[in-house]
Design brief:
By secondary structure, the chain is an alpha/beta fold. The protein has 19 helices and 18 strands.
């Protein structure tokens, strides 16, 4: 942090940031795609899909012809098709499969929609891109009014275990573990909780050890998923009998978060603070560092258009996706020059880790096309549209926030499922709160807010969506279910929509509590 502070005081800005500041999105993405294709042209994937032929189209003057060639030649992939046809060979030790060389690391990721672990390749190139984008975000702190001494404070990163497992030809583990293994030695001094605690696999032991060491650290920045950071703060405050977290970390000023919307946690989180923090949202997935919040934001994050990723956008409509969020054949796909504001898009990415036209699973809206600023509104498989209600996670978050404010309660977690009931349909809500609540009133308020937020929902509530059910449980029940599935802590988050086997697992878990 002291080194970063000296850079900030000297007004240092990375060249990539200046390049994005003074270039159009189209120019940046054209250049990025060309670099990716050149680097991967001699891989098995590049030869299969004629990357050299696509590259020749970059010299044609007709605007956008290169993208038409790319879109025509390279098929869209979801995880299963990318892994089964390509990445599995890289896991087995083959070289030059989708990216030059041999893949030594795979990040384990289950997201919130799949049951089994996914193996996402991590190359030297994408790791280098992630590091530089991280520095770009930290350097953006120069635009905030922070005292000079702040940059001598420590950064606490609350992630998954940094312990990696050797599996045949490669190492596997959380992305945080892979990045920690490659961290320069001079950076390790500034990051907490330190190697030993960070490598701890048992989440409860990790929180306990961090709590015991908290009094010895002077933390300025904390990084992690809001729900787990809130739990950590509560544990520390209780252990030391404090009023707020600032009683032990008076110089804490910045909260870097991602993975889940912060808004549902905001009210409860801020009760643990003596003063507001600077909130910096990130869009860092196992597949790459896609976007981060900048100081002059309008409520969203700016896409990183020159950080090893080429973006495409699929309008998230019934024409392109079925009711389960599965992409249909021959969908409409747009480049960044064709997107519009306030429209839902599923993202495709091609990256310097060997992902090609890969459906990452997130749904975003552009809130400022000129600045390429987005906000995440949900997941392709976490929208509810069992009867045409088209209910997004963003709608659900806002309804929960409004309901909590009106009732003066904190709803820490929630999830919803949908199923047929006779000739009609039902939405079944489960909320996690430690307050005593009138479930009928909570249900009514959520319903009314959703009607105001979503016209399709309001229409279906007067038609075939006849039933609304709601149950309230202590928030620990939600964390207990995650623990029972091996998904507690780190980057794990509770799914906002439960479908298929995840709903069955949740139902069985609740049943086991009454036995």
């Amino acid at each position: 942090m002291a080194i970063i502070g000296s850079l900030l005081k000297r007004g240092i800005t990375l060249g990539e940031s200046l390049e994005q500041q003074f270039s159009t999105a189209t120019d940046l993405q054209k250049h990025e795609l060309k670099k990716l294709l050149i680097k991967a042209r001699n891989t098995r994937f590049g030869k299969t899909y004629n990357f050299i032929d696509i590259l020749k189209s970059f010299r044609i003057e007709r605007n956008g012809s290169y993208y038409e060639h790319f879109r025509k030649n390279v098929p869209i992939h979801d995880y299963d098709s990318m892994y089964d046809n390509w990445w599995v060979d890289a896991r087995n030790g083959d070289v030059d499969v989708c990216w030059p060389g041999k893949i030594k690391y795979f990040a384990l990721s289950s997201g919130t929609s799949g049951a089994a672990s996914k193996y996402i390749p991590i190359t030297k190139d994408i790791f280098r891109s992630i590091k530089r984008t991280s520095v770009r975000q930290i350097l953006s702190l120069a635009n905030y009014d922070l005292p000079t001494e702040f940059f001598s404070k420590k950064i606490l990163m609350l992630g998954g275990s940094t312990s990696l497992t050797k599996s045949g030809q490669f190492f596997q583990g959380d992305l945080s573990g892979i990045t920690a293994s490659q961290m320069p030695f001079w950076m390790q001094f500034h990051y907490k909780p330190g190697r030993k605690i960070a490598a701890e696999v048992d989440w409860n032991n990790k929180l306990e050890n961090i709590t015991l060491k908290a009094k010895d650290w002077d933390i300025g920045i904390i990084v992690g998923v809001p729900s787990w950071i809130q739990l950590l703060f509560e544990k520390i405050i209780k252990h030391y009998n404090l009023e707020t977290i600032h009683d032990i970390w008076p110089n804490l000023r910045v909260f870097v978060h991602g993975g889940v919307a912060y808004s549902p946690y905001k009210a409860g989180f801020e009760k643990l603070l003596a003063r507001p923090l600077i909130n910096m949202e990130t869009y860092l997935a196992s597949e790459g560092y896609l976007a981060f919040q900048t100081p002059n934001h309008q409520g969203g994050m700016k896409l990183v258009l020159n950080g090893g990723i080429f973006f495409e956008f699929v309008p998230f409509t019934h024409l392109n996706f079925d009711e389960d969020g599965v992409l249909k054949e021959n969908p409409e796909v747009l480049s960044i020059s064709e997107v519009e504001e306030n429209t839902d898009y599923a993202i495709l990415i091609s990256t310097n880790a060997g992902s090609w036209r890969y459906l990452i699973g997130d749904v975003v809206q552009f809130i400022n096309v000129r600045e390429s600023e987005i906000r995440i509104v949900g997941r392709t498989k976490q929208f509810l549209s069992i009867c045409g209600e088209h209910l997004s996670v963003d709608n659900m978050n806002q309804a929960i926030i409004n309901t909590g404010k009106e009732m003066g309660i904190e709803i820490r977690e929630f999830t919803v499922t949908a199923y047929p009931k006779g000739p009609y349909f039902v939405h079944h809500w489960y909320i996690g709160t430690d307050s005593i609540v009138d479930t009928e009133r909570v249900k009514s308020l959520i319903d009314n807010h959703l009607k105001n937020l979503n016209d399709d929902y309001a229409t279906e509530r007067n038609s075939v969506l006849k039933h609304l059910e709601l149950e309230a449980f202590p928030s620990t029940i939600f964390y207990g279910w995650m623990a029972s599935n091996g998904k507690i802590g780190g980057q794990n988050k509770f799914p906002r929509v439960l479908k298929n086997e995840k709903f069955e697992s949740w139902r069985l878990y609740l049943g086991s509590l009454t036995q």
